[in-house]
Amino acid sequence: SKVIAVNRSKEQLYKNAKLFWNPALAVQADSAQFFVDLADSLKGFKVDDQWISTLRERETEKEKNARTQAQNNPDEHLNPLKVLHDLDESLDDNTIIVADGGDFVGSAAYVLRPRGPLRWLDPGAFGTLGVGAGFAIGAKLCRPDMDVVVVFGDGSLG
After folding, report:
1. What domains, with CATH codes, occur in the chain?
2. With the CA atoms of 81, 87, 93 and 94 taken in that order, what torsion angle do they form, in degrees rounded to the nearest 10?
3. Which candidate, 12, 44, 121, 141, has a CA 20 to 30 Å from the CA of 72?
4. pTM of the complete model
5. Pfam families from the xrefs (predicted)?
6. Helix (H) or strand (E) holding 24
7. DSSP at 120
8. For residues 121 and 136, what is the distance between their CA atoms, to the nearest angstrom?
């Protein structure tokens, strides 16, 4: 894979270059306009059907493995994958999901399926633990008509 860096500021454009990544292309521009222009330039582009098929097969296999792991019943504690699968089955289309807590968010992001756009909130890569409650309150204040569910893990609750 290749990294394309886009930033208005030339100084910020290369800020973490060679520390975490090296851009194959660095563009000094407004990122929103960059993506609008990129989308316009890709009109009519068609992805190879075989590649899409391969990705879908891999995704299906990964989901199958996760379901199998969710069936393991430990002697003590809960199986977090089972909890997440059970929660996912209980969610309806009117739900915002908030995930908080380190590695647990990765599992939650894989298992829980937001039912639409703007229905998933998490602190992001390298995010801060413990922001889930605040995110949930904010989501409920912004969308009082929706259910808000928070999943906490990895010490994010206390």
Report:
1. 3-41 (no CATH), 49-152 (3.40.50.970)
2. -130
3. 121
4. 0.68
5. TPP_enzyme_C (PF02775)
6. strand 23-28
7. E
8. 8
